[in-house]
Sequence to fold (193 residues):
Amino acid sequence: MARAGLTADRVVAAAADLADEVGFENVSLSALARGFGVKDASLYSHVRNLQDLRTRVAFLAGGELIDRIAVAVADRTGREALGAFADAYRAYALEHPGRYAATQIRVDQSLVADSPALRRTAEITYGMLRSYGLAEPDLTDAVRLLRSTFHGYCALESSGGFGAPRDVQRSWERAVDALHVALTHWPREGQPG
Fold:
């Protein structure tokens, strides 16, 4: 029987909070159960196993991230939209390191199709990039460039990997400027570079 007050949403939200405190890789069903003051078995009526819990945290965090990005990019195009997108992404990654780490896990593709948050992520990201005149397959390539740049920068920044005295914020702004130039002058598939 499910413990009174526990729901799948509460369990997942608590796991996301715990991930921000101790790191996504350190979230366990035992630690989560201790936080609720219940036995591990009490959680199994809400999540199937640790992988299910991690996937649910990934979807929760992905939804939070794209909600933040959507507000930031609303009614913007080009460099302004790109900057707003990038800044919202970076702020979320730095403010919620455990949740952000969850967004980077590989999720079963059969679950992706049913996720409104992931569909919305694609719509907003591809919509922002279409303002640069990109179409497939260039859109997919551009998404991969942005994701790898943003993720790499955030991962290095959060781990203290930037040791040079140059202001990290200024370097971020220059990186976004460089991405804008790259997107504006994107070498189209099939055209000579």
